[in-house]
Amino acid sequence: MPATSRRAAAPALPANRPLYVEVRAHLTEGIAAGRWKANEAIPSESELAAHFGVAIGTIRKAVDSLVAQGALVRRQGKGTFVTAHDGRRLLFHFFHIVGADGAKVHPQVRTVSFERARADAQESSALAIARDERVIRIRNLLSLDGRPVIVDDITLPAALFPGLNERIFAGRDNTIYHLYQSRYGINVLRTDERLRAGLGNGAVADLLGVEPGAPLLEIRRVALTFRDRPVELRVSRVNTASHVYHNTFGKGDA
After folding, report:
1. Cβ distance 198 to 240 under 8 Å?
2. Is 184 domain-assigned?
3. Is residue 216 part of a domain?
4. Inter-residue contact 85 to 174 (CB < 8 Å)
5. Is residue 250 part of a domain?
6. Residue 146 maps to which CATH number?
7. Are 237 and 213 in contact (CB under 8 A)?
């Protein structure tokens, strides 16, 4: 049975926007609502064309747009699938710290702290939530080749992650974004990053094994889902003595 048959009827497509934009919006809603799960194929282009009552070219343009956005991925000879946030996606799309020689390795992650708090001014602005709204703050230490290199301070809107606790977070068997996707239906499509020079304070310096006041790279990242809704604020402090920031996909690319 085609997945599109889960709906009682095809949606009416208004004429005030290009048809492919309307089709893309409906497909986006389907992914966001969990109609098609991570690593699950969406219906074929012919099935979607029949469902929406439009030409296959219109469907293809809508799907192409979602592939470019990172929400879907084409697999030769198999179909088009909802993108899954696995380790490979982390390494090649969202993680941009590499060795001085350009070598990429998966980070080893240790959760240092996990707490609930109220959003401060920076968090409320970045996450588009009210000041003092409940948030979850997490500090992770990331090591590369056994050496501590990055301290990540993550802030999440608590309302988007009901029931999330340190046991669930630290016990995940895949990436953080995979946890968001698989447990909460939140698909991180792209990130907005800002870089600046920073200094290691006492706690961060201790974790990274550097002298207090040592120069660090500071990366401020906001993770965005559909309609550019912010779902995570992450501030990373990076010891660049043996590592560099290298984003071959361009800023914010997913």
Report:
1. no
2. yes
3. yes
4. yes
5. no
6. 3.40.1410.10
7. no
CA atoms of 86 and 177, how far apart (whole Å): 8
Token pair of 161 as six digits: 């992650």
* Structural domain includes residue 240: yes
Query: What percentage of the chain exceeds 90 in pLDDT?
Result: 57
Distances (CA, A) of 11 to 27, 36, 43: 11, 17, 16
Where is the domain boundary, 63, 82, 101?
82
36: containing domain: 3-82
Q: Are residues 182 and 237 in the same domain?
A: yes
Q: What is the CATH number of the domain that holds 39?
A: 1.10.10.10
What residue has token string 């959760």?
A: 111
Same domain, 34 and 100: no
- pLDDT tens digits, 66-121: 888 788 989 988 999 988 776 565 555 678 888 888 888 889 999 999 999 999 99
| pLDDT one-digit tens code per residue, 13-59 | 555 678 888 898 888 888 877 788 888 999 999 999 999 999 999 99
**DSSP letters spanning 51-73:** HHTS-HHHHHHHHHHHHHHTSEE
115 & 23 share domain: no
C-alpha to C-alpha distances, 71 to 28, 30, 56, 86, 177, nearest whole angstrom? 8, 11, 20, 13, 13
| pTM given for the model | 0.77
Strand runs (DSSP E) across 200-242, as ranges? Answer: 215-224, 230-238
Can you tell me the distance from the alpha carbon of 150 to that of 95, in angstroms, rounded to the nearest whole number? 11
